[in-house]
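If it is no trouble, might I ask you for a protein's amino acid sequence along with its backbone structure tokens?
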Amino acid sequence: MNDTEKPADTPSEEEDFGDPRTYDPDFKGPVSNRSCTDVLCCMIFLLCIVGYIVLGLVAWVHGDPRRAAYPTDSQGHFCGQKGTPNENKTILFYFNLLRCTSPSVLLNLQCPTTQICVSKCPEKFLTYVEMQLLYTKDKSHWEDYRQFCKNTAKPVKSLTQLLLDDDCPTAIFPSKPFLQRCFPDFSTKNGTLTIGSQIVFQDGNGGTRSVIELGAANGINKLLDAKSLGLKVFEDYATTWYWILIGLMIAMVLSWIFLILLRFIAGCLFWVFMIGVIGIIGYGIWHCYQQYTNLQEHPRSVLTVYDIGIQTNISMYFELQQTWFTLMIILCIIEVIVILMLIFLRNRIRVAIILLKEGSKAIGYVPSTLVYPALTFILLSICICYWVVTAVFLATSGVPVYKVIAPEGHCIHENQTCDPEIFNTTEIAKACPGALCNFAFYGGKSLYHQYIPTFHVYNLFVFLWLINFVIALGQCALAGAFATYYWAMKKPDDIPRYPLFTAFGRAIRYHTGSLAFGSLIIALIQMFKIVLEYLDHRLKRTENTLSKFLQCCLRCCFWCLENAIKFLNRNAYIMIAIYGRNFCRSAKDAFNLLMRNVLKVAVTDEVTYFVLFLGKILVAGSIGVLAFLFFTQRLPVIAQGPASLNYYWVPLLTVILGSYLIAHGFFSVYAMCVETIFICFLEDLERNDGSTARPYYVSQPLLKIFQEENLQTKQQ
């Protein structure tokens, strides 16, 4: 072969085989003779990954996750750490929890009181003065009290000397461990908040304090309700976890069955979808009406949501007529919308059904594509775990930093850095009697510690980039496999072996840069959205209406931009899988192709996604109805459900959400298949004319429908 000759599979520089006016007789599907695309972006992406790995190693060297797992006392020692004097002292105890209710805690993010590690929390009321009186009669009282004091504490100090030395708490009260910290043992008695059945207690300084004052918040009762709700939810999960797994397995099998049936009876199954969805919504309307009529006999049911306010006991809302009436109205509106859409989109539904049949055939010939979401899940899990671990090590990097804390709040040196070893001999201790040098946080003054906030931002950005890259890789690999199916003239004889593996290898070998380019754009948009959310959180208390309006507008614009870019990227990945061009060229070709067929794309594509969405709803709804009948003891024929549930909606919602996510995983592959076939079909119509020399690759039923539409358009 001389220098002017080229292989048949390699197009010349002047040839544009994506141009609809050009016919390439040698084109038989995804181009096999490719070259690397977007090399510069690929190099930047690999450098970012290398930097990400280096950052993780550096954070691993400097960080200590024990600082996040164990509470830390005022000296910076871990509570419960093995091999230390605090090994058996796993709980953090506050000398004066009343000081933690000061507004300065919100500013300084630290409680201005001494904190020590203890093995258990106090179980009774006792002041230091009372202990001294009892100590004269029985020495054991000091042994019980000293476990909540420093090692240097003595039982014969005066109250004034005790406050200066800060060796012991002035009083202890019944507490229980929560998050490895001693908190007051709050309870309610006849609707009144108490601690150890008492409403008031001695604070150890000669004064009397109330429980509400110790609680520091009017929302203690709500906290108790929330804690009780959390415990009940945990109990329900512990009772029903295996039934939840069985329900999710049934959802997986049901999703498989639906995908298999779509290959043979897509039209019939579509109307089963419609009838099923309409029937489920209708059952919901009937159930809401039944509950509404049954509650008419209860006088309290006439109360409104505004009358009872915000309640942590969700079941209270289901005892109101207003709740069931509102749900019934919402379901009726949804029912009407679904029926109207079926009436006005009936012609386009025919196209969607044909595309669904073609998608079923493609998945039937390339069944390995249904397993690919498992690989995506594994890669995403690795990215998420690495991000979380790196963030934890970064957050726990540094050495203990101690700050001056003034319990009384009158010290000009407050929040200054101090050394606890020599603090009592410094001028600060003399200028501010009663001031403490307590552990504040972990940090440092080195270059690494100064850039930790920047490393957190880098960790988040690369995480978003990797997440979007994994998704893009899956879309490109699936598109390559399904494009190979479409451009095979004789199916399945002309389909090469292992099309998914081949497409995945091409995407990794040649188009890592292009996929990184597309995912970089999405990652940048998502970073901007996170910055907006951060600014919104910081400016939440401002009364500037204009700034809030601008934030809402920007949030909406970025949401629209993100979804538009995702749609364009998905089609660009299809063009990359077929022709092997760079990202910008593929995005331009995909955009031009979509614009030349904007009506077909706008209606057919959305109707197809609507059909698949209904499939997800039917899977989740079917499992949801089955779970509802099972967990409410209305299905004793098949199996006896758990009878000791606090809230049946806990496992019910879990099963419904899990079933929807499982169905989404299966149907996302199906959606990519349909979209790839549709893009290939549009390319096929522009490349070929149906003659013997330039035959169509599309199936006859799909071609017939579009020919009928074109004929009707010309007649009109």
